[in-house]
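User: I'm writing a tutorial on reading structure tokens. Could you give me a worked example: one chain, its sequence, then its tokens, then a sentence or two explaining what the tokens reveal?
Assistant: Sure. Here is the example chain.
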Amino acid sequence: ELRNVAAIADLLSEVPPFRRARLVELLLQSDYVPQLVRVFGVAEDLECTDDLHHLYGVFKGLVLLNDASLYEQLLREDLVMSVFGALEYDPDLHVARAEHRAFFRSQQRFKQVVPITDEDVLKRIHQNYHLSFLKDVVLPRSLDDNAFAALNQIAFSNNMQIVSSLANDETFLQSLRDKLADPSLSSEALHDALRLLQELTTIAKQLQLYNRSTFYRKFVEHACFAPLAAALRRPEPEIRLCALEVLLASTQHEPALLRTCILSQRPGYELCHALIGVLVSPGGTGEKPQASEVLRALLDPDAMEGRERDEFLNLFYDEFVDKIAQPVAGKVSAGTGPLNGPTNGTSGARGGEGGAGSAEGDDPAEEAAGDVLSARQHVCELLCFFVTRHTYRIKYFILRNNVLCRVLRLAKVRDKGLVLAAIRFFRTCIGLKDEFYNRYIVKNRCFEPVVAQLLANLGRDNLVHSAILELLEFVRRENVRSLVAHLADAYGERFRTLKHVEVFEGLLRRDAQNNDPGAIGPAKGPAAGGPGASSCAVGAPPGGRRVFGGDEEDAYFNESDDEEEAEPSADAVDDRQFVPRPVHAAADDRMERGAFSHEAPPPRLVPGGSLAPRLPAVLEIARRGGASSPPLVPPVGSPPNRSPPQLSSAPPLGSPPAASPAV
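And here are its predicted structure tokens:
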């Protein structure tokens, strides 16, 4: 009754947590929520503002009880509008009253792109919408973490039932696929169908692995990937974006599904052509990150099996790699096989001051619009990914088409983001420390545009300058000998004039050490036998002990500690044949130094070992007056003694010396 609503509101606001379960049980048994809805109708008809404010507190308290069964009753189709109406009368809103019911009456529209015949699915769809409206619009400031968790759990359960039911509905998926493939469909209708498919894939991300796999298996069985190729070619950006979101969701679940679909489309491969077209096209800047992510997932060899890897990568390098590289490399040819004649674009890039900038062919470094720059940046990122993952295939492609030199021509543009993308690709190739790339870089003078950018940004402490310095420091630190020699020969005079950082001086010093290790003081770094080099290097004494003399010892203590952690270089390892020391050499050394004591017995001789190396040590023990010791070699036929021989304690002073042991 209206006269009790104030007491009910106080009771619900102060109920302790351990009594909530019992209170919810009583509310559900007595059918209390429908009675409160009728009381709200009476109060609203009478326009009793105080009672309406108390009823707001009552329904808010019911929501904060965090019970799924109570939420089910509050969100019933015949009660939910009255519940939202009661929650409009928030006493804290003094200026204007919220109008939730007016929104539902005027703006809410439930559009069925494809008819859904299951009533339970429709009920759960409406319930999820009301749940979202309740927590995001009606009570966003009042709900605590427990209430949010309870509402999200109900929505998750509904989503799982919705996706499972629609995936098992053969009529629904077939109707959706036919609608996507209909060429006469209007842009708005096609957009609605793609949004429905996108919503299903988005909901499927939240499901458990088994339910998600079931959904995508049905998705592939009804060939829902095929109509997406036509959607990617549409001029409307919102249609292309929806199609890309569907493809991205499927690759995040299992990229093999999309690979299988592409391989089944031979010889046209419409879907892959459409996907690459979105990436390299001048327009659609906002769609290129999604297209790049889909291609990266498709071409990741770590996510492929052996036969699938070879088949798909061979297809990609035979048909599509030239189309991806075209924005940054101009017109190139596909394939990875070796060429008998000169490679594309290399005739004008052999020596000379032009370096990488003198390659023939289309010049991608000319200024372009922002959309084209975005495409080139994403293509550079993909090429970095190919270099690190595709090994020999991308090597042959770079050799055939002079790709690295063409990409480095992008360092001439004014857009710093594109300059950094080109330098990043160059740094990726050098970071492999592969002599294939090193010879290619030296032959084509690929450092020319990089050094030009370095000199142009000397007075600017920007990201381009820092990226180039890091590249040169990597070459020096890792001692990539061919690149160090090339930099010193080609740009040594320029580097000697640069004193603002120590990288250039270090490069020149590294080159001098590589050419003549004794010319400039003690060697530094692992590549020259310095800190981090192997102890078995040429000239090192046995046992790894390093002997210094005079000036070399003083220079050793004056060395910098910057390279103490450097990794040992392959060039510093001694390649002389290993000659093992005699079996008892270590024991003989310790015996000669008097290292054996009563507590530390000498090691046992191996039967059949030579006694000649031990003769001086045995005579020394006898000379010092040691007592007779057990024979070093057991008599023939005696059982082997597993315990090591012990040296007896020395006799007291004045006693006659013991006889020397027989050898």
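What the tokens reveal: The first helix runs from residue 5 to 13. The mean pLDDT is 77.
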